[in-house]
Amino acid sequence: xxxxxxxxxxxxxxxxxxxxxxxxxxxxxxxxxxxxxxxxxxxxxxxxxxxxxxxxxxxxxxxxxxxxxxxxxxxxxxxxxxxxxxxxxxxxxxxxxxxxxxxxxxxxxxxxxxxxxxxxxxxxxxxxxxxxxxxxxxxxxxxxxxxxxxxxxxxxxxxxxxxxxxxxxxxxxxxxxxxxxxxxxxxxxxxxxxxxxxxxxxxxxxxxxxxxxxxxxxxxxxxxxxxxxxxxxxxxxxxxxxxxxxxxxxxxxxxxxxxxxxxxxxxxxxxxxxxxxxxxxxxxxxxxxxxxxxxxxxxxxxxxxxxxxxxxxxxxxxxxxxxxxxxxxxxxxxxxxxxxx
Length: 341
What we know:
By secondary structure, the protein is an alpha/beta fold. It is built from eleven helices and 17 strands.
């Protein structure tokens, strides 16, 4: 079978390797689709601080069961599945208390351990999540980023009836907006400085879309949400400007949740954060319940994923996919690799 390997930033090779042996407790997954995310792009550019080369990439994935190992129950050959890419120790304090997404020894497939970018992938059955048979493989490959969004929404508790602001209309920002609505939020504002991305957010159900190059974020919140502003603000852009906007304009005593990863040391006004008694929270990946809710939201039609797929590439064109993303940064949402093509 073919396996992708990034041997250095911007250098991808394909190796012929044996189909992996299925050990007890494992299943063999025939990989169908892989999504490329922002963290993968950081690896491509040599800017991911926790990834060394060579590395086989791939963590947003869909496929089907090809073989079932000894002792595994609840799966059938041909069944559609996705894979949760966290490798955890199970022994540290977070793991022992159910927060394994914060494992002290956390490794993520495609970054600190072998990813799924191969024709077949053997994996512990407990990391495999069934997909509905009527869900497309494209949608299945996007359950992972949607689970990121679902976990982020959970960090605010019950959002039923709340007014939510999402700063940043990239794939994660749009998924956070959709997840918020799907989980009961009353209304959602999405901001960005790209009209193209805001149009995509609107297509995916955002109530209000604001270009903050032209309209002040504070004025927009007052216009659409009134003097009580947003109950929760999600920063899905992750820079000093957006976090500065969130802190400056948040309702006193409300909550800001940082979803995006800051690329450098932040410079933000902690004096205002303190004076306004704002809760600044964060969110890290997901847990199993977030995957299950992500699948449910898609199945119930509360989240739509197809509009976020920008382009497909064949497996051997992995490098071209990255080049396409670099050349089309503003208009690209999610690029999908067709592994069996």
